[in-house]
Amino acid sequence: MTQLDLLLPFAMPPGEMARDLLRELKMPSLATLLARASRSTHEIFDGFARALPHEYWLARQFDIAPVRDSDNSPALAASTMRSFHLPAETGTWFILQPVHLHITRDHLVLTDTRQLQLAESDARALFHIVQPLFEEVGKSLVYGDAQTWFMRADDWHALQTSTPDAACGHNIDIWMPKGSHERDWRRLQNEIQMHWHAHAVNEEREARGLKPVNSVWLWGGAEVQKRSDTNAKFEEAFIFSNERKPFTALANQKIAITSAADMLATRPERGLLAIDDLIEAALAGDWAEWLQRFQAMEELWFAPLLTALQDGRLDRLAITISHNTAYSTFDISKSSLHKFWRKPSLARLAS
């Protein structure tokens, strides 16, 4: 392999907690890689951007980011539909995800979709309840899986939307769809919410201690175009993830990737690896879980990658780390490792 791009969303801890968190991590391989690398990129985003920094970074690698990143969520609907082998030859499609909105005294908060635990049977029941509502307003609704549905709305192509992770944990008013058809969407969303309110599916979920599915989140609008080889930049694009999410549709996963050893064995000329294990814990503010998951990456990923650089199986490594408002990219080569005067340190995770 000549070059690997490694994306680590939320590997940068929050500034006020960085010193304490990094003190707990014992990761000599990652510390060596970061200390002897050169930072090539550092970009800061508005705190109200419609996607998280790592989402924009990933979308840029496949040329699907908005013209101005902060204005819209990445246009992932078409590529995600293809990953489900769903026909979408024309039109503008959006990703639609069933969600739980937490009701506070004066606003609504979007809960992390990973916490929904939505079974296939429940999802299909909820889907069929509201599908006629879309037909009544001239929109198509298509089922992908329990957490990923698709809506065709050609006349809503200019609607600006936000990714669920960008809106997670916040007052949703700021991240709701904006544009000339935002009221049309709100009316449809309200109808969906009324049809699901106190429905048997949700009553049974609550009886089992699960959150009710009380709304939907719209994002990722994309006009379907003739498919091109968007992955040409990478011979292999791997996304190591425990769940199927829209961003995984960008990956060319030809084998199951569970470790750096698996990935290096494929020997692509250039590869992209995105590891999303830290996102859920960071969004929840569960820093004990964040530490545990991050520490586990040392032996599984960073130590083998450092060894691969040292023995020449990997020529260059670019590590991109992020949090909710910024990302940085660090470039490392075998020659970089010779900078012995740079002592191993995780300090750059807080930079």
TrEMBL record:
Domain of life (superkingdom): Bacteria
Matching InterPro entries: Regulatory_RpfE
Name the UniProt record assigns to this protein: Regulatory protein, RpfE type
